[in-house]
Design brief:
Layout (H helix, E strand, L loop, with lengths): L1 E8 L16 H13 L6 E2 L8 E10 L6 H10 L5 E9 L11 E10 L12 E3 L5 H9 L3 E4 L14 E12 L2 E8 L6 H13 L7 H8 L14 E7 L18
Parallel strand pairs: 3-10, 5-6
Antiparallel strand pairs: 1-3, 1-4, 2-3, 5-9, 5-10, 7-8, 8-9
Helix pairs in contact: 1-2, 3-4
Length: 260
C-alpha cells in the first residue's frame, strides 16, 4: 500500500529535509516516528527538499508499507512520536503510480519579511529582516522580468543537483501589511537556493542599492557571481506542491491568507 502524508514543520532546529548521517533532519525524524509506529523501517520520498532553517506548511511525502492501519491511525500514531515542531496534517492512500515529487505539477513558496529598524525578536527564525525601507513599485517592476521560462543559473547554488537550470516561474506576488512584506513564488520547480537568491536581489532593488533594471541583466548573464548574496532562510516557507485533482489529495487552507 502507498500512503501520502502532508507534513508541516518549523525548520529552525533542523539541517534541512534530506536525511544526513547525524540524523538532525526532518526526514530522519519523520521516518523514525513512522518506523516506531509501524514497528519496521519506513523510507519516504518528498515533494521538495527544503534547506536548513526553511519551514513547510504542506510538505507532501509518500511511502510504501505492508502494515495495515487506517489513515487516521497513521496520522495520530506518527504524531505521537514526532517532536513538537513537526506534525503530520493528513494521510490518504494513493495509487502506486503517485510520486510526491514526480507527480507534482507546480510548487509554491512564500517569504515573509519584516521591515523595521530593530531586528525581530518574538518572530526570530520565522521572518526575514530588512532594516532599510523597501519600495514596492521597484521590486514589482524588477520581479516581472523573471516571470516565464528562463535559465535561472544566476540564482542557482553551486550545490544544486538539478539536471537543468531552465525553470518556469509562473508568478511572483509582492504585498505588504504593516511591518511585514509577503513575497509569493509559484513555479513548475525550483533550483537549490533559487528563491533565497531571488529574494536577495529583490531586497537590494527595494532598498535602492540596485536599480530595477539590474535584475534583467543578472538573469541574462546567467552568472551567480553577479547576483546578490543568498538571503536568510528564516522567513522562507514551502507552502506545498500542486497536483492534478485525480490524485485526490487534500487542499489545506492557505494560512497566509490571514497572516501578515
Amino acid at each position: 500500500m502507498r500512503l501520502a502524508l502532508g507534513v508541516s514543520y518549523r525548520g529552525a532546529a533542523y539541517h534541512g529535509w534530506q536525511s544526513q548521517p547525524g540524523g538532525q533532519t526532518v526526514q530522519d525524524r519523520l521516518e523514525k516516528a513512522l518506523a516506531t509506529f509501524a514497528d519496521r523501517p519506513v523510507r519516504t520520498a518528498c515533494a521538495g527538499r527544503t534547506d536548513a532553517g526553511v519551514h513547510a506548511l504542506n510538505q507532501v511525502v509518500h511511502f510504501d508499507t505492508s502494515v495495515q492501519r487506517e489513515p487516521y491511525s497513521w496520522l495520530r500514531g506518527s504524531n505521537r512520536y514526532l517532536p513538537s515542531d513537526i506534525a503530520v496534517q493528513w494521510c490518504v492512500p494513493v495509487d502506486e503510480r503517485f510520486h510526491a515529487r514526480n507527480s507534482a505539477i507546480g510548487r509554491r513558496y512564500v517569504y515573509v519579511l519584516r521591515e523595521s529598524v530593530v531586528r525581530p525578536s518574538v518572530e526570530s527564525g520565522l521572518v526575514g529582516w530588512s532594516f532599510r525601507p523597501l519600495g514596492a513599485e521597484a521590486m514589482q517592476t524588477a520581479a516581472r522580468v523573471l516571470i516565464g521560462e528562463h535559465d535561472f543559473s544566476a540564482f542557482r547554488s553551486a550545490e544544486c543537483q538539478a539536471a537543468s537550470p531552465v525553470k518556469t516561474l509562473r508568478g511572483i506576488d509582492i504585498s505588504r501589511r504593516g511591518l511585514y512584506w509577503r513575497f509569493e513564488f509559484e513555479a513548475n520547480a525550483f533550483l537549490h537556493h533559487m528563491v533565497r537568491n531571488i529574494m536577495g536581489c529583490l531586497v537590494a532593488v527595494g532598498a535602492g542599492t540596485r536599480d530595477d533594471a539590474w535584475l534583467a541583466k543578472v538573469l541574462a548573464e546567467r552568472d551567480r557571481r553577479l547576483a546578490a548574496p543568498t538571503f536568510a532562510a528564516d522567513g522562507l516557507y514551502f507552502v506545498g506542491p500542486q497536483y492534478d485533482a485525480q490524485h485526490g489529495l487534500p487542499t489545506p487552507p492557505d494560512l497566509f491568507a490571514s497572516l501578515p
